Amino acid sequence: MAQNVNFDLSHPLIEAGLESPVDEEGVHDSFSQLIAEQSQNEGLSDAFELQQLQRQLDEEDRDDVAFLSSPGHDFRERRPMRRDVEWQDNEGQADPLVGERWSSATMKVLSSMPSRTIGRSRGAIISQYYNRTMQLRRRRQSRPAIRDFSRSARPSIRGYGFEVDSTDAEVSKRDRLVNNLQNLSVSDRVRMLRGMPLSVAEKSELRSLALQKEKRTLSGSQIPCCSQLKYYIIIGARHSWYSWLNFLHSLHLWQVALKTVSGRFGTGVLSYFLFLKTLLFFNVFLFLVTGAFMVLPQAVHPPVLPAGRSSFSGLELLTGAGYFSDTVMYYGYYCNYTLRKSCRDDGGVQNVSLSNGTRLDCVSKHLSYNMPLAYFFTIGVAFFITCIILVYSMSKSFGQSFRIDKSHSILAMKVLCSWDFKVIKKSSVKLMSENISTQLKELLAEVNQKKVKNTACQKLGRLMVHGLAWTICIASTTACVLAIYYFSGYMHKNLQQSSLSADKNPLLTEASLLALPVVVSLINLLLPGLFNLAAWMEDYESPSVRTYVAICRNLMLKVSVLGLLCYHWLGRVAAEPKSIGLKCWESFVGQELYRFLLMDFIFTLLDTLFGEFLWRLFSEKALKRRRKPVFDIARNVLELIYGQTLAWLGVLFTPLLPAVQILKLLLLFYVKKSSVMMNCQAPRKPYRVSQMTTVFITLLCFPSFLGASVCVTITMWSITPSSSCGPFRELKTMFQAGKRWVEELEKDNPNLSVLARAHSYLVENPFFLFVGAGIFLIVIYFHSQVVDGQRKIISLLQEQIENEGEDKKFLITRLQSIHEKKRTPARRLTSQDSSC
């Protein structure tokens, strides 16, 4: 049936219309060439077309573009006027071009537009690619020129509404195209078939015909044995390479699980698991570095342990103290001497070097390993490389997420180009279909999102509600932080009193150390529930805005708690370790961080059990409702950032804490994935979170990693280490280990005085540290500015495209008005003649 022509560029039906060829440049290089060809070929076809159009206009006694047929339909078919009116009413858009009366000259211009003539005929497509294969063959080898062939082999642009080529001509052109494809190389043939705007079945048919003819040709001629062997080797190498690529692709961690989560719950929940995977890789890197340069050398050369070592009781798994205190897990176990291959004499006495001002009993010239220097530089280099990776990931994420792809264009790409036809397994097909379906729901929700205009009273009411909600959140956070402050001070005084008492129970003392981590973890578990209640009171229309607000409130809580804990460890414990009876305050802080990390994991499991599993059972059994809880992205992501900050803070005091974090993340992934699949439901309002991964990486970099780096730097630069344990004993600061090593190098070799001066200016001076941090911030700023400039340029280009569409509408309207003015006097003369 015929259909009205609508020139509204933003109309959804325009997006779902027919597509032009992929490479229109091969048909017509420019509009000027198209106009030139049109002017040269103005013949019988144009005359016939104009006669048909004029006859139709005479019969209808009007010029209406509504009866211009669509591609593949006859011009004589038209839709009833009542259906046209109903369609226009349903659209609800007042387009001045629809319903106008067009002249034959206007319709001739419209039918000759490149967008109406290119790529509409299947025969024209075959002719076009026949010419392209001929051009490619002429470049490869000497062939006759294109002018030697008939004009029917050239691309036709008259396929709009008429069948230009007959069936016999199309079959002959198909045969010639197959012959040309056969004579091309394999890569050129694949590239040519891939670029044809035909269906997959027709492309497969052309490919099979070309291969059949090629096989006949090869079977008729004998191939030498050397060539056959070469072909077999190439095919075997290619199959081996593809198998290796498939094997590497199968090694990707949690690939199927992530696709399953994405297909059922969307990109919001998927971003949580991707962020967890990113944190896992950071901890694996940190564990490999510390394990290779700190833990392994010290484990191979263990120090002499004291006689009264405590036995394993099982409580150490929760407290981290007791038996674990004298292991490579904590700072106090590491020695402060240079490890040598023959540093043990026959009596079994271990010798040390002069690097830290201690005695020298072995002067072996074998390879040595300075443990204090390795400890210092390993921590510094690990943090520096982590900073580089974070900055690079953040800048890359900025470039990927802040794109200007409109939802209309992304929706079209998802509909037309998202399916992978190589997937044949039933489970993979089902998984991919669910994934695409969820992404389409998110895009449609973004397209259909409407801004509600509120009155002044409504705006004032919403502003008061938001102010009340933020007041509740800030007040509750402040109250919890003050409670933690006073409770930590009480626990510190309790440790002072227990250290002075003579009859104390070691197990009871260790168990009491769990009180502060339990209180902090309980607050981190319960207070986000109050934040969700405040968000429910605010009633946000956009789910993404609600998620970002929840992230801000949870971030405020986590940053406040971590800042207070850092003050407790560095301001109370490290300042007066003897007041609480500590010989190695670094190991105590490491044990505290281990307890906090473990309690955070335990309370996360309890939240998963009670907050998701039991709530689902209560809702289904007691309330008789099928509604399940929605996965809280903000709270769970901030829990991950909180745990990772503890791991970065504790790597100086507990070198094996990244290994604990790795085990925690592995278990957490499978627990959360199972809970999400069983106990949670997808959001009722699907939404696309294109920038959420960037927000997560940014929060991980600035509040988390930057805060941990500042605390570690203050500890190494300004706080005095313990005098009876660790690799930095008998030093005023940990930083002096590198300074003393440089001084010894300068004494042994005066030519290395340049290294000493470079160390004093670059490492000792904090100015260069701030300069390096400033350079990183400047790089991030410039990258964000470049991305912002690209966004503005793309916006201007899109606006220019829309303006060009409006220009076309204006020109067509002006053309019609000029024709109407010219035709009015002629109609008056005709009416006067008829009256006479």
From TrEMBL:
This is Transmembrane channel-like protein. InterPro entries: TMC, TMC_dom. Belongs to the TMC family. GO terms for cellular component: plasma membrane. The chain crosses the membrane at residues 270-296, 373-393, 468-487, 507-527, 548-570, 596-618, 692-719, 767-784. It is a multi-pass membrane protein. The lineage of its organism: Eukaryota, Metazoa, Chordata, Craniata, Vertebrata. The keyword Membrane applies.
